[in-house]
């Protein structure tokens, strides 16, 4: 079968690989769609980051580059391994793409399995990936999505990132949130916040992405940091108080600086994006405002609630899909667009059989 294989920074190849084997306790999934994630772009431009470099296998998966990419996937069950009796062939599903040690408790009783030693992600640290025709995944990481369309279901993974970021913020209905960056994660985080009754302000330089934020209704206020003083605008919108909670979704230094300035005293700043370089922080401002600065990585037991948001119509995922391409177009029409012309696209999906 065809798969997108990450060899090294700037080196992704579409290659033929063996089909995966459906072992006991696993589920065979025919991939319908897989999103291109900002993390994939970071691997391409700055990596390897999560991808184990050639010659340095990951301690859990035992794999190293080249590995198959893709962790934002949806698909249809085509086979069930021995012992899996709560799914059926033909079910529509998504994958919670974790690689963790077998002795880690991944039940709802543990809210930190995503922070366990040597954690990595399917599609980055090995075990196949969604940028291929088929994948086999342990039953624990497979979530049925019912009648949710499979193209929309491919956005459940990044929506779960937004959901977990919301949980990390401690925000609640009536709060005002500032998000820097209206890329896929920024927009989907905004969608979660709006569904939770939070007022959203987004700062984004791209006209297309600003329009998308307004058209989808995920933000009540959209600012252009190239022509507006974002801090002044946020203060004006909050009667001089500042944002209650803030989300950094760009990995750009000025965006983080803006959040520190625009968040109210004792507010919460959540860093959502993956940084491929060192950032800086004015610690004195953090101290004098008694800000909480929090990191967030991925999700933990977040998929059921996230799927419910989409299935119940509280979040409409369709408008965020701005393109569908084939696997052979991955680099030229996918990565190249999102790296060099990201103002023209939000979420590009890959159909591996197109």
UniProtKB/TrEMBL annotation:
Record has Oxidoreductase as a keyword: yes
Keywords (A to Z) from UniProt: Oxidoreductase
E.C. designation(s): 1.1.1.-, 1.1.1.303, 1.1.1.4
Class of the enzyme per the UniProt entry, highest EC level: oxidoreductase
Domain of life where this protein originates: Bacteria
The keyword Oxidoreductase belongs to this UniProt entry's keyword annotation: yes
Protein name per Swiss-Prot or TrEMBL: (R,R)-butanediol dehydrogenase/meso-butanediol dehydrogenase/diacetyl reductase
Organism listed in the record: Nocardioides zeae
Upper classification of the organism: Bacteria, Bacillati, Actinomycetota, Actinomycetes, Propionibacteriales
């Amino acid at each position: 079968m065809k798969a997108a294989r990450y060899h090294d920074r700037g080196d992704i190849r579409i290659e033929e690989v063996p089909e995966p084997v459906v072992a006991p306790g696993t589920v065979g999934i025919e991939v319908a769609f897989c999103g291109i994630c900002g993390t994939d772009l970071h691997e391409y431009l700055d990596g390897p980051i999560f991808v184990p470099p050639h010659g340095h296998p990951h301690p859990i998966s035992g794999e190293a580059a080249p590995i198959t990419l893709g962790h934002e996937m949806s698909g249809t069950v085509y086979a069930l391994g021995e012992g899996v009796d709560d799914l059926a062939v033909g079910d529509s599903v998504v994958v919670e793409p974790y690689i963790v040690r077998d002795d880690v408790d991944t039940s709802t009783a543990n809210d930190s399995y995503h922070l366990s030693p040597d954690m990595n992600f399917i599609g980055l640290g090995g075990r196949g990936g969604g940028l291929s025709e088929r994948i086999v995944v342990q039953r624990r990481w497979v979530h049925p999505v019912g009648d949710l369309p499979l193209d929309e279901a491919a956005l459940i993974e990044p929506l779960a990132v937004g959901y977990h970021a919301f949980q990390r913020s401690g925000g609640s209905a009536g709060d005002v949130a500032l998000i820097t960056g209206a890329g896929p994660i920024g927009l989907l985080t905004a969608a979660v916040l709006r569904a939770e009754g939070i007022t959203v302000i987004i700062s984004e330089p791209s006209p297309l992405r600003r329009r998308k934020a307004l058209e989808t209704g995920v933000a009540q206020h959209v600012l252009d940091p190239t022509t507006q003083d974002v801090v002044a605008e946020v203060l004006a919108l909050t009667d001089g108080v500042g944002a209650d909670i803030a989300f950094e979704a760009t990995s750009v230094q000025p965006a983080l600086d803006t959040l520190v300035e625009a968040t109210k005293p004792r507010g919460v700043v959540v860093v959502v994006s993956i940084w491929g370089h060192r950032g800086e922080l004015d610690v004195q401002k953090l101290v004098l405002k008694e800000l909480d600065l929090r990191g967030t990585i991925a999700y933990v037991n977040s998929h059921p609630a996230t799927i419910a948001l989409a299935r119940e119509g509280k979040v409409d995922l369709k408008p965020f899909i701005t393109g569908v391409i084939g696997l052979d177009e991955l680099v030229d029409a996918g990565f190249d667009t999102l790296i060099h012309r990201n103002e023209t696209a939000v979420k590009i999906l890959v159909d591996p059989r197109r």
